[in-house]
Amino acid sequence: MAAPLVCTVLPTYNERHNIGPLIERLLAVNPAPYLVLVVDDDSPDGTAEEVERLIAQRPCAGLPEPCPQQVRLIRRRHERGLTSAIQRGIDEALDTYGADIVTWMDCDLSMPPEDVPRLVRAIVEEGADVAVGSRWIPGGADVAHGAMARTLSWIINQFAMALLSRRVHDYTSGFMAVRGEVLRRLRLRGDYGEYCIDLLARALRGGYRVVEVPYVCVPRVSGESKTGVDLWDYLSKGRKYVATVVQNWRERGQPP
Ligand SMILES: Nc1nc2c(ncn2[C@@H]2O[C@H](COP(=O)(O)OP(=O)(O)OP(=O)(O)O)[C@@H](O)[C@H]2O)c(=O)[nH]1
Ligand SMILES: [Mg+2]
């Protein structure tokens, strides 16, 4: 059987200093056929220009044959938002490139790119439909965030486990690999991190095999967090997370 085409979607807003090292590290560990799709929302810091520079330096830039490892940029000029950016990348990966597996992650280098092949292996070798990076199972950890953020994450995950399923311990991970056919059926819902709770809940409800892969979340290398640093930022995002858990609990028994 031919090797599956794996595509990593990278949603970016102001990640100029992180995006180059992230792409290089991804290309170093993911065997061909492999595609990186950056979805940038017209970042004022020049993230898109940085990606264009990198693409121009690629060994197969300008050649008619497609690269076995490609890097592509989608630049959204009039749209913003994490969930819609990831969905845009997923659509492009499936419809334009025919990806078999789509992965995505934050671009702040908090999620080690070297762990992407482990997520992919969970699908290819262990038969998972959805592989999710987890900080809250043995081997995983969060050394990036302070006590307040970790406590809020623990509370929301306990709540999600109590109402939805204990098969997942990190509902707010955002570090995932998913089979293309699952993503053709389940489109992302939400604005920010709540899409992850929602997708995992619906995948479980739909009978898909969800596997957790431990990973260690490390501090952002450069630039600023979009979630925020104070309690108010966390609570206003947390409200949506709680609402998403409750919505999925209400939808239990319904098709995903
Ligand atoms: N395209 C796009 N990407 C976004 C947008 N908002 C955030 N991102 C990206 O989404 C990822 C997560 O953002 P972060 O700033 O790391 O926020 P976070 O992971 O929720 O918060 P921290 O835990 O503090 O890192 C990063 O790759 C951002 O660049 C957006 O509106 N559009
Ligand atoms: Mg982050």
Q: What are the salient characteristics of this protein?
A:
Spore Coat Polysaccharide Biosynthesis Protein SpsA, Chain A, alpha/beta, binds guanosine-5'-triphosphate, binds magnesium ion, seven-stranded mixed sheet, 256 residues
What is the class in the CATH system? Alpha Beta
Computed Rg? 17 Å
Series of H and E elements: EHEHEHEHEEHEHHEEH
- In total, how many domains does the architecture comprise? 1
The strand count comes to 9
The percent range for helix content is 25-40%
Given helix and strand content, the structural type is alpha/beta
Question: Would you write up a description of this structure?
Answer:
Helices cover 40% and strands 17% of the residues. Helix 1 packs parallel to helix 2 and helix 5 packs parallel to helix 8. The chain has eight helices and nine strands. The protein is globular, with a radius of gyration of 17 Å. The chain has a single domain, classed as Spore Coat Polysaccharide Biosynthesis Protein SpsA, Chain A (Alpha-Beta Complex). The strands form two sheets. Strands 3-2-1-4-7-5-8 form a seven-stranded mixed beta sheet, with helices on both faces. It has a two-stranded parallel ribbon with strand order 6-9. The two termini are 30 Å apart. With 256 residues, it is of the alpha/beta class. The site of guanosine-5'-triphosphate has 20 residues, from strand 1, strand 2 and helix 3.
